[in-house]
Structure formats: structure tokens, C-alpha cells
Amino acid sequence: MNQIKKIHQKMGNIAGIGLVVFSAVMSNNGDDTGLFNRSWKFYIGVAAPCILGLIAANIVTSMIQLFRAERV
Q1: Domain range enclosing 2
Q2: Domain total for the chain?
Q3: Which of 16, 21, 66, 69 has the fewest CB atoms below 10 angstroms from its CB?
Q4: pLDDT tens across 33-55, in order?
Q5: 26 and 45 co-located in one domain
Q6: What is the DSSP string of the chain?
């Protein structure tokens, strides 16, 4: 059972990295609106939900007293 869990974790990691690479390639299509030609507001808007989600998850799981390794 533990071996299957490790395989699924590796598959999830590979899928996540593939999604990030795919998104970066598809959003950088050569126009003047490429990935690196955007204002700082765009990057804040993209990063904010991820950062706020991690903060909220840590607060809630700390309140219900999960172990540190289980919080995120």
C-alpha cells in the first residue's frame, strides 16, 4: 500500500509541473502580451489567491490543532 501511495505522489508532482510548464508555454505566444510583458498588478493578482489560500489553510488547521506536518 505504501508503494502505491509513493507512485501516486510522484504522478501528482509530475502532473503539477507539467501543468505549470504547459501554462507558461501557452501564455507566452509571442504577442506583445507575452508572459514577461505584463504589469506588476497581473503578477499580484495571479499570486494572491495561492498565497491567501495557504495562509487561510494554515490558520484553520492551526485552530483545529493538526500536527505541523499535516497542516498544508
Answers
A1: 1-32
A2: 2
A3: 69
A4: 666 777 889 889 989 999 999 89
A5: no
A6: -HHHHHHHHHHHHHHHHHHHHHHHHHH--SSTT-TTSS-HHHHHHHHHHHHHHHHHHHHHHHHTT--GGG--
